[in-house]
Design brief:
141 residues; mainly alpha; Arc Repressor Mutant, subunit A; 5 helices; flat
């Protein structure tokens, strides 16, 4: 078995410390004393930090992909449920339940309308502020 170089040991150290492996475990794995590893930790702090950021970025990408898959799955489930609901006859539902569904639907519709209304108001307010700012600049000149 070929002996690994000091540079290779330091590279392995960076990888392990980026994964937050304790010094004791790294010492056993690499066959290097803990005081030497602590010294390397200080010398290679930036490299370890960069590698840790890379590890975190990889985890975030992995999470994003799985999050995206979950969203797609739930979207497909919602489509299936909507299709099934469209095929059902509402005549079997009690009057009380129909009124409850109607009220919830109206509430959701009003919430969506309010979002649009607030977005339009914000846009108008932003335009007025820009106009006011330019008027103040002209007035000062």
């Amino acid at each position: 078995m070929a002996k690994i170089t000091k540079i290779e040991q330091k590279e392995q150290f960076i990888v392990l410390r980026a994964k937050e492996v304790p010094y004791e475990q790294i010492a056993k794995e690499l066959g290097i004393s803990k005081p030497t590893l602590i010294k390397w930790g200080k010398e290679l702090e930036i490299e370890v930090s960069n590698r840790r950021a890379l590890e975190l970025e990889l985890l975030q990408e992995k999470y994003y992909v799985s999050k995206r898959k979950r969203i797609e799955f739930y979207g497909e489930q919602l489509n299936c449920l909507n299709k099934e609901l469209n095929n059902r006859d509402l005549a079997e539902i009690s009057t009380e339940k129909l009124i409850e569904l109607q009220m919830k639907t109206i509430s959701h519709l009003k919430q969506e309308e309010m979002k649009v209304y607030l977005k339009e108001k914000k846009s108008l307010a932003d335009s007025l502020m820009e106009s006011l700012d330019s008027s103040i600049v002209e007035w000062k000149a």
